[in-house]
Design a protein that fits this description.
Blueprint lengths: L37 H5 L3 E4 L4 E7 L3 E4 L2 E15 L4 E13 L2 E3 L2 E9 L4 E3 L2 E3 L1 E4 L4 E3 L2 E3 L3 H4 L1 H14 L1
Parallel strand pairs: 1-3, 2-4, 3-4, 4-5, 5-6, 5-7, 6-8, 7-9, 7-10, 8-11, 9-12
């Protein structure tokens, strides 16, 4: 038996239906996206230099800074905290209220409150601060100048006069 083509196959093929598109709205509603990641919002006013970034120049401002990338130059954030993360590499002088070192700093640091060098941190440069903490395992090479805060600079004289006051009464 031989196969014969169907006669209906010679009839024209109907065109493929067009894809159905939903009607376009008169306006597009804006998509709600968070401005900052929740972790940044929870930590307060803190800027971050990620590990994929490199900054050359001077950084100044009025908020705390977390550095996980590379920075060369000068960092001046009076009254705020500068934290150098584990991946952070800083070749800069730093001036801030508090400086926490988890990564590497090459440069002089000045803190009005304290400098904290954690066990995985490394600091090569001079430190000037009211307080300093160096954990076991941390690397430090440089000089240390412990400065009393200006408000407390007059306190030792007041402390001796307080003892004298105790003797008077």
């Amino acid at each position: 038996m031989m196969w014969k083509p169907n006669q209906s196959s010679s009839s024209p093929v109907p065109p493929a239906p067009e894809p159905v598109r939903p009607a376009a709205p008169a306006f597009e509603a804006p998509v709600s996206r968070p401005v900052a990641p929740p972790a940044a919002a929870a930590s307060g006013d803190q800027a971050t230099i990620g590990k994929g970034l490199m900054v050359k120049g001077e950084i100044t401002g009025s908020e705390s800074l977390f550095i996980d990338g590379k920075v060369e130059g000068a960092i001046n954030l009076p009254g705020n905290r500068v934290t150098v993360g584990r991946n952070g590499q800083v070749a800069a002088s730093i001036s801030a209220r508090e400086i926490v070192v988890l990564g590497k700093i090459r440069g002089n640091v000045t803190a009005t409150d304290r400098v904290d060098i954690r066990s995985e941190g490394a600091l090569t440069g001079d430190v000037s601060a009211a307080r300093i903490s160096i954990e076991d395992g941390a690397f430090f090479k440089g000089g240390i100048d412990i400065r009393k805060p200006e408000a407390k600079a007059a306190q030792p004289a007041a402390g001796t006069s307080a003892a004298a006051t105790g003797e008077q009464g």
